[in-house]
Amino acid sequence: MNTRLWPIMRKEFIHIVRDPRTLAVMFIIPVVQLILLGYAANTDIRHLAIAVFDADHTAQSRQLVEAYRASDYFAISAYVNDESEIARLLDGGQVRGGLIIPPGYADSLLKGRAAQVAFVIDGSDPSVAGTAFAASQSVGQAQGVKLIQQRLGVDFSSLGGIEVRPRVWYNPDLRSSNYMVPALIGLILQFLTGLFTALSIVREREQGTIEQLVVTPIRSWELIVGKIIPYVGIAFFDLGEILLIGVLWFGVPVRGSIPLLAAIALLFLLTTLGTGLFISSVTKSQQEAMLVSFLVLFPGIFLSGFFFPLEAMPAPLQAVSYVVPLRYMLIIIRGIILKGVGLPAFQEQVIALAILGPLILIGASLRFRKSLE
Amino acid sequence: MIAIRSLTKRFADAVAIADLTLDVGEGEIFGLIGPDGAGKTTTLRVIATAMAPTAGRVAVAGHDVVREAETVKTLIGYMPQRFALYPDLTVLENLNFFADLFGAPRAERRTQIERLLTFARLSDFGARRAQNLSGGMQKKLALAATLMHRPRLLLLDEPTTGVDPVSRREFWDLLTQVHLDGVTIVITTPYLDEAERCNRVGLMHRGRLIACDTPNALRARIGATVIEAQVSPAVAARRLVEHQTGVLSASAHGDSVRLILDRAERQADIMAAWQAHGITPGNVRIVRPRLEDVFVLMLEKP
């Protein structure tokens, strides 16, 4: 063991345990983020509040309302007697949609004419509106088919035709937390190692202790590695912490190999530590380092496919995303945890990380060495 | 001990050291003084291997500070102006940390740390965090840390700035002990009474060394006479004579006036001027010039 690496690591460890705020950020923030993202970033749309204006008041119209209610997508939070009342509720945000059944609905049905109903949707949140849009149509269509079958007295499934039976793999219930929790591992690894490496190195500069260090025989790589290793340790601790909570609390299935995940995480850490080191070499104070970190890390999060699918982004943004290491890591983590696939399934991503990691780390080390002057 | 040859250090926007040549002998206490921005700190940093020279060469005990930086680092102890130990580490943790970095052997370390704690009178504070020490104690701890690896040359950048007079004296007592152990010391200081304690003093101004000699030789060099007289009111007495021919500098302190005269004979003119205005000075005497007087005169010279 190198004789100067150990003292740096031990010193760094003391810094960490003596600063309660850092300690809290390192061990509690992952849990808070996990719970927030596991619940709050839930895009599963259920029980959307709607208002119903039933101007028909017939058994048929009540059947239709019941069909919407039973679908689970919608929850009827108000029955109103006026169309303008629906507009008022939508404006106020009390409901996200409104079902309007005009007078004569049942009459049209009985006379064999197409009965029209209106479904108003609050489009201000596109993802909610998208789901509501599709659900409002499918519930209506299903009800329509049911009515026709009753009228004709036949069972459509006995007539042939095409029946699509979707089967969802990996995450059959389409639960957001299954998608979010694995990704959060990548996000937190990046945040912890990138930001905290930058802060811990910049602190030496800010406190002036670097001036005492440079006149000791320590080499810059010893200083860098010695400072980084404790944060790698903490990153792995957090990885375990998130996995455990993910499995026990959110019921996220872990189908693949954890050792493989850890090994690739190490590769990923090269990129984040390199980023942190680079940030430390271009900043003079911890505050500055914090700002630059957010400047660098945030766009990375959006370009990684964490929140929004990369496939939906314009080509120039997609091109930029190729240099965002988190992009590759998310595919790998989701692959290992949700799909249970192994190395062959994501070797391209691993190769990308294996190229980006050393590249960023070496570049940052060179830049760091110059900044000691 | 130190050989500096035509040292120049340029920064992007300024020249910090211009063509500095200087030798410091083994066992000397050498004082570097001069106004802020004169280049004292930069000079120390270059000698300490913390900064590379733009041009020129610096050697410590025959080892070049650039090419043989690793060797030089083991020979020197550098104490920056700002407290540069870890505030959240205890006194002992700080000392152990630097002992580790210099690879001090375990067996020797304990006695060395004990010796330094006793030396710095910090034995009772081993478990205290550095941030909770007084300013004077922090300076002593920093000194102890730089002595951890038994350097032969100590480079101290304003080690007593911002420290109370008692701690300042205590610090100098420690330095004297270190010096008696045979360690060469280069120190920068804004306090000229401290410069008097140096074997030799170098005056830097705008990156150049404008004078370098023993304090006494420097005093002799200016060839001026300094007189002190008790007068009242002192300020009025000073105003009367400050623009008179041959008065190089005049200052009033309490109820006395201090005048630097280019020749001793000027004293008669001064007395005449005062008497003409009804001022009768008492206890007029010729005093030894202070280093302060010397440097004020040297810096004022074109």
Protein model, in words:
The complex is a heterodimer of chains A (373) and B (302). Chain A contains 15 helices and four strands. Chain A is α/β, with parallel strands linked by helices and 373 residues long. Chain A has two domains: 11-41 and 175-371, no CATH class; 48-159, abc type-2 transporter like fold (3-Layer(aba) Sandwich). The longest helix of chain A is centred in the middle third of the chain and has 32 residues, at 176-207. Chain B has two domains: 2-213, 3-Layer(aba) Sandwich (Rossmann fold), CATH 3.40.50.300; 223-300, Alpha-Beta Plaits (2-Layer Sandwich). Helices cover 36% and strands 27% of the residues of chain B. Chains A and B meet through helix 1 and helix 9 of A and helix 2 and helix 3 of B.
Poorly predicted runs of 5 or more residues of chain B? none
Radius of gyration of chain B: 23 Å
- Percentage of helical residues of chain A? 55-70%
Instruction: Determine the number of helices of chain A (DSSP H or I, runs of at least 4 residues).
Output: 15
Spatial shape of chain B: elongated
Brief summary:
The complex is a heterodimer of chains A (about 375) and B (about 300). Chain A has helices at about 5-20, 20-25, 30-40, 60-70, 85-90, 105-110, 125-150, 175-205, 210-215, 220-250, 260-280, 285-300, 315-320, 325-340, 345-370, and strands spanning about 50-55, 75-80, 95-100, 120.
